[in-house]
Design brief:
The protein is an alpha+beta fold. It has five helices and 32 strands. The strands form eleven sheets. Strands 25-28-29-22-30 form a five-stranded mixed β-sheet. The protein has a four-stranded mixed β-sheet with strand order 4-11-10-7, with no helix packed on it. The radius of gyration is 64 Å and the shape is rod-shaped.
Amino acid sequence: MTCRDAGEPQLMSIRAIIVRVIDDNDNAPRLDREVFPVDVHENNRVGDVLLAVNATDVDDRRNAALTFRLEPLDSPRSASDVVSIDQHSGVVTALTAFDFESRQTYSFLLTVSDGGLVSHSRVATVVLNVLDDNDEVPTFVRSSYVFHVPENRTPGSTVGRVRATDADLSGQHRAVFYSLEGHDSRAFRVAARTGELFVRAALDREEQPVWRFRARASNDPLFGARSSRGSVDVVVHVADVNDHFPVVRRPRRDNATFVVRQLLPVGHVVTRVEATDADDGQNARLSFAIINGGGDAVDGRRAGTSGRDEGPLFVIDEVSGDITTSRHIRRDDVGRYTLLVAVSDAGLPRRLTTTHVVVIVNVTGHYPPGQLAPPLQTADEDDEEAAKDLTLALIVGVCCVAVVVKLVVVAVFCVRHNVAVRLSSNVTQKVCSGDAETGAGNKTAATTASVWKRLHGHADHCDDVIPASCSVRHSPLSFLHTCQLHTVKISVYPRIFCGEFFSIF
């Protein structure tokens, strides 16, 4: 302020006057926007800063001191359980890890107030959006899958469908792709997007009745090593189709003849037809029947020659396949019976196999009541027995012929050398050489030596006299055992003959 007077010279005085304007809280806080959208990924860390609110107030000092507050708008949960805001700085932080699958959006009311005596405030909305991450593993709706498919289905036929879901809600992470793993999965394929199972080739139950493998589901169509995936067990049972004929295992075609040698009673088992079927269940349940040939003999008389129609001689058990006699076998049943046996399964449609069984009734003995008959033999077994009997008979016959020949040779030998034996009480000996004055012992030795040389054909003993007390029996053997030369027994002949006899063997 300047003050002047009117004199000459003019005088003045200057003074500074300061006018202080006292602030009045006449302004409200200012926010740069009315809605604050905040995006946060799920599975965040607790304490992460979500938002820093920028607010101003043109007032001064206390009237410009701002405070911040958040209140939930659409949740029963308190804001303090989810997020927190610094009341002085306006920084919002997370108090929990958000889960997109549980909740995707949170809304809060933001209030900014100044510190005036008459406080002014400004409000805004904070919208917290939780972003989806691929944090869920695809899960199959079943713990395991079991399918049944008939065998021999054409390649490409549908087996069934596997299905998995992903808890991720976004379309990007919710898509599921399928694949198969395991050795048995080679026979199947799966649609990558739908999970439908198809057979690659016709399945054969007799080759493999059950297939086991695993189905996989992932969000990654390439099934990378880091991709999350789920898996489940899959079992495919191949249902049986009646595609096999019964196979007769016994009797074999080259050994289907059986011989009956006894008068067998009713119900006696002649043989059994054994068969198998590669199918399963009803398709493998076999039944047996004789189509024809059970009562007529081809090479003999008809079973019912008495005039009574007694039915077939042989019947078969439809379950066990035992061929039994339907009545007592009589001697007039001798003949050859050719039985045409049919073996059929119980499938739909039925499959049937036939075989021939030949029964030869050749009664050679009677079957005693109450006793077991000897086991029946097939024709081949009977031929083997006959061959053994023939071989034994030939051996015995050859031995007998050899013995007879030996006996004839000995008899001819004796006749050739004029061996005459007569039984007498007096013995007269004439010895060609030797001392007559020697004792009885020397005479015996000379006689024995003469006989021995005679057996060997020596002619220098032609004057020897054979005792008249020796007589020829019916055979050379008996002659050799009974002939005596007074006190000297001619025991040389038996020894020689026995040696020749046993040399046969």
